[in-house]
Amino acid sequence: MYMSITLEGDRLRLTRAPQWPRGFVVPALAVVCSVYFSVREVEDQGPYTRVAAVLAVLVAGLSFIEDTQQCDVITGSKPRVEIRRRGFFDFMLGADGLKVFTGKVVSVTVTAERLRYFADGHQVTLEIDDCPIEVMVTGSVTLDPQEDHLEVARAICTHVGLDPETDISVEKLAGPVYKPHSN
Length: 183
Hints:
4 helices
């Protein structure tokens, strides 16, 4: 399951945490390799240039760590959807990354999009009453199976009082079309 689902009273909490090893090991290896090669390239430049190169590569590598994403669907007297996305730098700087959308969830959609050179990616979006945009449960399309996304959509529908069999729509977006080069 790509998101953990917990129910706390009138709050349905959907959480996606960085996945091991992809979320930590790959960025760490990228940082180590990049630091090693960047220091070798600037060794003739002096110690300050080395430190600057190491810091630049370290910051770039840390930015590749996946964000922790949380979506709370709250029912009750003031229905709303709260979305938090916190990356490494948000955590270090104390930023909250909170977005609140007030209104009742009207419909849930699972979209499938063809990704470049890959398989289909999926995403759960919510249509909220009096909100001009569709709210994405995760920040981006994920390569997890469509059935996992449908399970999240069913949990949201059940929580807000919609019928999971009739109120979930599945859309397939065309995505980018790339033609092979012909020489």
